[in-house]
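Q: Hi! First time doing this. I have a protein sequence and I read that you can turn it into a structure. Is that right? Here it is:
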Amino acid sequence: MAVYKRNRKETATQYVVTAQALQRAIVQYVMNDKYVPKKWRLVLAQHAINLACEMMNNIIAAHNTFPTTEDKLAIRKEYLRKAYINCYQLQDSLMCLENIIPTVTIKSLGEIASLLVDEIGLITKTGKNSKVVNQQEV
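A: Yes, that's right. Below is the predicted 3D structure, encoded as C-alpha cells:
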C-alpha cells in the first residue's frame, strides 16, 4: 500500500537519506559541464566532492554507533558534530564555486542549498534526541 508524500512522516534515519541525496546532487552538479567547466573541476569542484564524501562518512559512522553507553553516545555525538561542520564547509565551498565560476548561479544551486539546510536541521535534531539506549538481556 502506497502512502502519499504529504502523509509521510519523518523517520529516525532521515538524516542518512538526506545526506545520500545531498552527496548525489553535489557530485552530479559539479560533474556537469553546463555548470562547472572541466578546467575548474580539479581545483574547486573536487574539494566539494571530498567534503560531501567526508560528511557522508561521518553520517554513516554516527548512524552505526549504537549508544548503549555514555562513551558510545559521546562518540556518536562527535560524528554528528563533524558531519554538521562538514555541512557548513560544503556551504562555503559552494559559495566559492558561485563566486568564481560564472556558470554557477544561486538559482542552479537551489536544490543543493535546500538539501543542505534540511540536512543541517536533521543533524541538529538527531544530536539533541540522541540518548543512551539500554539493551534488554535475552
